[in-house]
Write a structure and sequence with these properties.
Layout lengths: L5 E2 L5 H10 L5 H13 L12 H10 E2 L4 E7 L5 E6 L5 E9 L2 E5 L3 E3 L8 H5 L1 E4 L2 H15 L5 E4 L9 H12 L11 E5 L3 H8 L6 E5 L5 H7 L8 H15 L4 E6 L7 H11 L5 E6 L13 H13 L3 E4 L21
Parallel strand pairs: 1-2, 6-9, 9-10, 10-11, 11-12, 12-13, 13-14
Antiparallel strand pairs: 3-4, 4-5, 5-6, 7-8
Helix pairs in contact: 1-2, 5-6, 7-9
Bound molecules: S-adenosyl-L-homocysteine (SAH) and iron/sulfur cluster (SF4).
S-adenosyl-L-homocysteine (SAH) binds next to strand 10 and strand 12.
Length: 344
């Protein structure tokens, strides 16, 4: 790959449309190209056998076609697989494939690293390296599907990075995953998890697709949340609640509120009371996640009795709630444990 050519996988659907129309191509070529790039995941333009030869040559002269290379893979006793992909510039990102019965969920990254600095998160400890392109995001899902030789039923933006700090490329990637010409994953089976960037939540509410939203709440007490998620100053809880209420009104869908329970931090009765107050009357589902201890963070898991207390209190106030079961613990494939170890 040379520096003078642009990677065709850095384009969104509209960019591919423009690229082909600039070359005087009819509209139906767009679907053909998307099928090759995101349905089949080809390695080069010469493999796009239903395009005229001259067009393949022209595309190859103008564009590169980047694909990540697999640089490491770990397989858990429970079948969960963790992948480390190397991108064209040596940057690395991680993804996880989680099989369950006939379902396969892929957890993908939207940035290399993350600039939000959440104290309990491994990715947050090393800062942001860079944003990923649509292709670099979507290719993780294609890569896991190929390695596991299975159709991906669900994909979640819960790997490294804050998706709404890289909004357009993330949405473009979700659209390639959703497209029948791409991976054909139903919109409701595509989930974005945000730490709570309000402009992103508002914008996401107005997207035409029925993508699923998850928001990392982690505390309904402002001071606690500020300490756990220092990158979120300027986005107070009251405004988050308003944005979530608006999301419910606009979409009719129920966002998930993620709550990583950390001993002596956000697991007290006062925290629980604040959480119940936050959720009461809000269309939402709370997902309690006993924190995965990350080296250097000091965050510890609470006793099971605290998890149970949260679960019972939410249920008794008619707030929908579940406790996340851990997968891939033996290979550190769980939330917040994804971290680049081979820095470029
Ligand atoms: N940046 C986005 C998405 C990636 S993180 C976000 O923060 O929502 C996916 C989820 O894992 C988030 O809810 C995040 O808060 C949570 N998480 C991060 N570190 C964790 C840890 N050590 N234990 C449990 N959950 C963690
Ligand atoms: Fe970034 Fe999410 Fe980790 Fe916070 S929890 S540092 S937003 S990846």
């Amino acid at each position: 790959m040379t520096n003078s050519t642009r990677d065709i996988k850095s384009l969104d659907l509209h960019g591919i449309e423009s690229a082909l129309s600039d070359l005087g191509q009819p509209a139906f070529r767009v679907r053909q190209v998307v099928r090759w790039l995101y349905g089949r995941g080809v390695a080069g333009f010469d493999e796009m056998t239903d395009l005229p030869g001259a067009l393949r040559v022209e595309l190859a002269a103008r564009y590169s076609l980047g694909r990540p290379t697999l640089s490491a893979k770990e397989v858990s006793a429970d079948g969960t697989r963790k992948y480390l992909w190397e991108l064209h510039d040596g940057t690395t990102v991680e993804s996880v494939g989680i099989p369950a019965g006939d379902r396969l969920t892929v957890c993908f990254s939207t940035q290399a690293g993350c600039g939000m600095g959440c104290t309990f998160c491994a990715t947050g400890q090393s800062g942001l390296t860079r944003n990923l392109t649509p292709g670099e995001i979507a290719d993780q899902v294609l890569g896991v599907a190929a390695d596991m030789a299975a159709r991906v039923s669900n994909a979640v933006a819960m790997g490294q990075g804050e998706p709404f700090a890289n909004y357009e490329p993330t949405l473009a990637a979700l659209r390639f995953m959703n497209s029948p010409d791409g991976m054909g994953i139903g919109a409701r089976h595509l989930t974005v998890s945000t730490c709570g960037l309000l402009p992103g939540i508002r914008r996401f509410s107005a997207e035409p697709e029925q993508f699923t939203l998850a928001v990392s709440l982690h505390s309904a007490v402002q001071a606690t949340r500020d300490a756990m998620m220092p990158g979120l100053k300027g986005y107070p809880l009251g405004q988050l609640r308003e944005a979530l209420a608006m999301y419910g009104v606009r979409t009719g869908r129920r966002p998930t509120l993620e709550y990583a329970l950390v001993a002596n931090t956000n697991d007290s009765d006062a925290e629980l009371a604040a959480l119940v107050t936050f959720c009461r009357g809000l269309l939402c589902h709370v997902n309690l996640i006993p924190v995965n201890p990350v080296e250097g963070s000091g965050a510890r898991r609470p006793d099971d009795s605290r998890v149970k207390a949260f679960e019972m209190a939410l249920a008794s106030t008619n707030v929908e709630c579940s406790v996340r079961t851990e997968r891939g613990a033996d290979i550190s494939a769980a939330c917040g444990q994804l971290r680049q170890r081979h820095l470029a």
